[in-house]
Amino acid sequence: MFAHALTSRVLAYADQQSIGHEPFCTDIPGLLVARHFRPTDLTPVLYRPIFCLVLQGAKQSSLGDEMVTFSQGQSVIVGLDLPTCASVVDASTQRPYVALALQIDVTLIKELAAEIDDFGGADARASDGKGRVSAIAAGEADEAIVNAMERLFGLLNKPAAAAILRPLLMREIHFWLLSASHGALLRQLAQANSHAARISEAIIHIRRTYVEPLRIPELARAVGMSESAFHQHFKAICGTTPLQFQKRLRLIEAARLMKSENQSVSAAAVAVGYESPTQFSREFSRMFGLSPREHRSSISIAHGTSARPAAPAHMRGQADLSV
User: Fold this and answer.
1) Distance between CA 211 and CA 144 in Å, rounded?
2) 74-78 and 136-140 strand pairing
3) CATH superfamily, with its number, for domain 191-243
């Protein structure tokens, strides 16, 4: 069994904390634990930059028309904020899906890369467009990264040790992520003039101004790309167009507003930038598989009509709702 000792410890911890269908934020900043006892539907989620180590079971995330699968013994690196869809595909009561996840510090990635001459070599030079990198990449988890994650998890309930050792382990883990075979996007993000770095700048702008109309020509110029190159590289990395990216951000945020802030359908639509209630309802239904009113009603049924449930993890500034 892959990482048997670590898997057993994480499962015991999940039992102690009664971890359910949402990721659990541990006392180690940035470290999350996920456990599922059954497969889940393909659900819209907002990924933040994150590293996920799958200890048992399997999960899938969509990248455009492709599905990226990461299963036991593998890890997945998401280097950018990315609204997408994900589902657990291998889980049971006897053998639940379980994973450790760590938020990626992109600033630390850049600092480490700057300390190493020509880090990544060919990956860094792939900015001419011939080398494809993706926002979601899965690969085998090598012994070094598993060992480092095990030591980080071992700092739980050891606050004095965590205060000293966590920063060192974060540097080590981020080094291994930069070195990973599926860490090409991180290596390119560390290169100021790469296409990936420019697309990252564009994503930051879209997230900051997602309620406003998206002006592609202006955004392309702002990140130093032609409009055609901007479209090409944005879709290659994110699996979607900039306009589709913005639409998904809006709809995920609208769902959060209805769930965690108890907003009405019309108020949520206006809050995320929709002027047409009909268009909002149509696009929401297409993405979530039910109308906004049905979505809001399902929340009331699940929590009671007077309940105001907490914001889901993928919209709390944590990492991903379904690591």
Assistant:
1) 42
2) antiparallel
3) Homeodomain-like (1.10.10.60)
